[in-house]
Amino acid sequence: MNSISNPAHRARAQGRPWGWIFLGLLALFPLWLLLWRGAYHAPLWLDEVNYFLYALDWGVRESAPGTPVTGLQGWLYCMFSYSNLLMPYLAGLKIVGIDWRTAPELILHVPSIAAFLFTSFLAGRLLGRRSPWDAVLMTATISSIPLFQYYAFEGKIYSLAALAALGYLAMALRCIEGPTAKNLLLTAAAGAVLPYLHVWSALYLAAVPLFGLVEWRRRRASFGAAIRLAATSIPGIGMAALQVFFLKTAFAYQTKLQFSRFLDPWSLAQGVTRGLWSGPNHQPPPLPSSLAIAGGALFWVLVAGCIFHLFRGKPAKKERLVLLASISVLGFLLVSGSLVEGFIFGRYEAPLMLAPILAIAALPRLGRRAGLAGLLLLGLLSMPWTLQRIAGKSTTRAMIQEVRRSGDRGSEAILARFYHRWDPLHRYTAYFYAQLLPPSWIAVDYPPLDPVGSDHMLFGNVVRTPKSWRLLQKPHNPALAAWAEERRLQGLWVLSPVTEDLPGLERILVKAGFSRRSRKLFRGHPDSWLLHYRRFRPLEKQPDSPREMKLFP
């Protein structure tokens, strides 16, 4: 019998629920290994802090996107979906007396970790075939893929979007088994959630109507059945259209960020495959090329096997849905992604790359088990590099911890510099670790020494315009000295990526009356310097020129 979930096996499993639970826990051993190695301590970085601030204070989200946010936009735009989900979660923690400050990384990562756990377990439970070992292999495979692992330990929407995609496919399978009004309505509701969580997840909405059309054309289903199945995607398509409208109007600035060139499908396919095994491509350390090549080759061999089995094999009806949906989602990704500038980030692909992995469950037994075992093995071999990526998401926490150990909170401040013009990483993460976590420092920002990436930049409760940094680029400008004098500062800690203009910064600080006392390199994302400056004492001889300060090479 060629069904994805064998009825006889399902009946036996229902009589042994504890056996299923034990096998599920066993199959999740990659997740337990990550937790045991402390992946939940991964430092928060820019986007995670952004989403947290949007959930904590509605006024912050009104300023951050660069345009006023109305009530409808704030609740329905996918950029704020994770923040909206965090709001009741944080409120619940407060009711039971849990302060998120006690373990901020763990507490803010819990929703993503839980979504990753349920996605892995439910994929095996729903798509396991004749033997429980199929479910074990599927569960373990999904929980070992580097792309899914990385985003399981980020306080962002992508693990939840992958779980929602799995739920949508599960509801579509129910419609195939019994197209009742209840099943059709639940499928439509699940489809509407997908674009709200992440707009690219709308690609799943095109796969299910396509399946109904193919079944009707092959005379396997009536025209009415195809229409009913297609109708379930209407709410989701409406939600996707609303997201596009927001992007093109109120949040148009996001579509103008020049992250990349337009990519041809071949280049995008290479990037998607590399991202599946490496996670974020910009994040060090790089995965060994041998593992990346082997993983990519096996992935495309399995995709080719799924295509062949769909057209030349004799899969059952539910298997045809999983195969066609998974292959079409991957195809839509490569076609639409190559038409949209800036589509290079692995996080956008994470919910979509779940589909071709699920399709392997529909292959014949030998190919299915060999493919899943191969992916599982490569995922486990990649885990040391995945762990390093998770642990090195941001260098800010380690630097702030060093400041807390060695600094004087009463007379020193922190100046956090950009990572890129459009990515003020240290500004936001320094604000989180030094201001929101007690004891807070008197200042985590000074009128910026760097250009900002949009019309204005929110930091804390202060909005600064580009004009405020241009004056400070002049080495002789006295504003820095006046600011330090006003706050009676004796010291300054600088968090600066190694790519920034450190000699230029130091000349400004020297003219403002500061002398560097120490510097320490922190490896991670990005590699950064932590520099400590002290103001000249009245009796100290001030340097005659910045050259005496031994500037950076």
Structural class call reads alpha+beta
Shape, please?
elongated
Q: If you average the pLDDT, what whole number results?
A: 79
In the sheet with the most strands, the strands line up as: 1-4-6-5
Strand portion: 5-15%
Uncertain segments are 447-476, 538-553
Distance between the termini: 70 Å
Structure description:
There is one protein chain. With 553 residues, the chain is an alpha+beta fold. The protein contains 26 helices and six strands. Strands 1-4-6-5 form a four-stranded mixed beta sheet, with helices on both faces. It has a two-stranded antiparallel ribbon with strand order 2-3. Strand 5 and strand 6 form a beta hairpin. Helix 9 runs parallel beside helix 21 (365-391) and helix 19 runs antiparallel to helix 20.
